[in-house]
Structure formats: structure tokens, C-alpha cells
Amino acid sequence: MPTRDTAPIGAPCWLDLMTSDTERSRDFYCQLFGWTAGEPNENFGGYFNFLRDGAQIAGGMARPPDYQGPDVWSIYLATDDTRKTVDAAIANGGQVIVPAMDIADLGTMAVITEPGGAATGLWHAGQHKGFGVLGEPGAPAWFELQTRDFPAAVSFFRELFGLDAHPLQDTPEFRYTILKQGETWLAGVMDASNSLPDGVPSHWTVIFGIEDTDAALSKIIELGGSVVRPAEDSPYGRLAAAVDPTGAHFGLAGPNAAGPASG
């Protein structure tokens, strides 16, 4: 897939990892994907960037001591006005976790929830444009929301960003919608109301591109992670799901994957 200078409105544009062990996480992802890790920036609470071939690909930060949730990858959607998008989210059934705030001259962020409860980041780019590469090994390949309120979630993102919602499958057993901007696929929304275990909230999953899914799973185990779903072939590549050594979930997709993948 081509690089991009600016993310379409409503598209995932950045992701970051909140981890209980920054050193172990830095080592894990650098060895798995060939990334390098920048130095923590004390002006931003120790936030650091993962780099792919010298370009920013994701962020990372230590989990706050009072945070009660698991280690997690968070996904940020592009907006042209974070504050207006937060107001629109509230009007359409969302809630605010982190109000809009300026991050120096880098951009303006916020964190909201969609109607099913999944935390969703928002980012209006300033100097920080987000990641610019998709669908290549070591870069994000797809983004999927598993939600307990599927109809409301689809309507929410359609209204919030003016996206097209294309049903990929709509049966009682499996419902999945693609969020699109024109002909560009941005993310998937999956009805997880009957599949998420008790106690597991609605959530986003990032699926990373990889050259060899099976080899990556072996490497994950070697590095102290675990396999959640073994590799399997699909129309969208060879897919798998895993957790890193501190428990953060992510997906993997073999070459040329650019479509839905459950994580």
C-alpha cells in the first residue's frame, strides 16, 4: 500500500502502547518487527516513539500506577477539530475519557468511547502527522473494533466523521461492517455482543503486517509472548493473534493483507 502524508478524516492515524514494563516492551517489539525505540521524553511523561526505518510508527508509555486496566494498544482516529469531534461524540452517544488537550505543537488529542464502550483516541495533527506507512511488514495493516453495541457503533462513526459504512457480512452469526472514505477502507466494526467473554469490554485491535506469520508467532513465544489464535489462511492474508509479554493484545497479517481480521 502507498505511504500517505495526511490521514483521511476518521482514519486510524496513530497508535500507542501503554505498558507495565517499558524496557521489556521496547525490546519485544524491536526484536519482533525490526523497530528501534527512541528515548523517553520526560517533558511528556516519559512517552517514547517506536521507529520503523527511522520514521515514527507508534508510541509507548508506562502505565500509570493508579490505572486498573490491562496493558493495551490504543488507536487514534484523525480529525480536523478535536474539540468539535468530542462535542459531536457526546451528542451521538459517546462519552469522554480524556478531554481535548493540546500536546505542545504536536497536535490535539482526546479519548472518547463509542456507544459500546470501546476507548477511542482522537488526533488533530500539528507537527506530529502520525504514521505514514500502512500494510507493509512492521507497520499497521488493519484496525478492528469489536463492540457490544454494533448498530449504534456503526451509526456513531458514520455520523461522527461522515464515513460510508459498507456491510461485509450481515447474518445473525456474524456481522461485520467496513468503514470507508470514498473507496478507501479505513477500519472494520465487528458485532462482538455474543463473542466477547464476560468481563472483556468492547475494544479496538491493531493488526500489524508481517512477512511470515508463522515465523513471527515462533518469535513471539521465544520473546516471552503468547499465541491467542494460531495462524490461519483467509482471503485477507495469513492471520493470527497474540499477546506481548505484559499482556497487550495485537494481531498479525501476512503479506498483502489489507482487510478484516478479528483480533
Largest sheet: 8 strands, mixed
- Overall structural class, as computed from helix and strand content, comes to alpha+beta
Tally of strands: 16
Share of residues in helices:
10-25%
Show unreliable segments.
256-263
User: What is the end-to-end distance?
Assistant: 21 Å
Average pLDDT number: 93
Shape: globular
Q: Over all CA atoms, what is the radius of gyration? A: 17 Å
Strand content: 35-45%
Short overview:
The chain is of the alpha+beta class and 263 residues long. It has helices at 22-33, 82-91, 150-161, 213-222, and strands spanning 12-19, 36-37, 48-52, 55-62, 72-78, 95-103, 107-113, 119-125, 140-147, 164-170, 175-181, 184-191, 203-209, 226-234, 237-243, 249-253.
Textual characterization of the structure:
With 263 residues, the chain is α+β, with helices and mostly antiparallel strands. Helix content is 17%, strand content 42%. The chain has helices at 22-33, 82-91, 150-161, 213-222; strands at residues 12-19, 36-37, 48-52, 55-62, 72-78, 95-103, 107-113, 119-125, 140-147, 164-170, 175-181, 184-191, 203-209, 226-234, 237-243, 249-253. The strands form two sheets. It has an eight-stranded mixed β-sheet with strand order 2-3-4-1-5-8-7-6, covered by helices on one side. It has an eight-stranded mixed β-sheet with strand order 10-11-12-9-13-16-15-14, with helices on one face. A hairpin with a 2-residue loop joins strand 14 (226-234) and strand 15. It has four helices and 16 strands. Mean pLDDT is 93; it is low at 256-263.
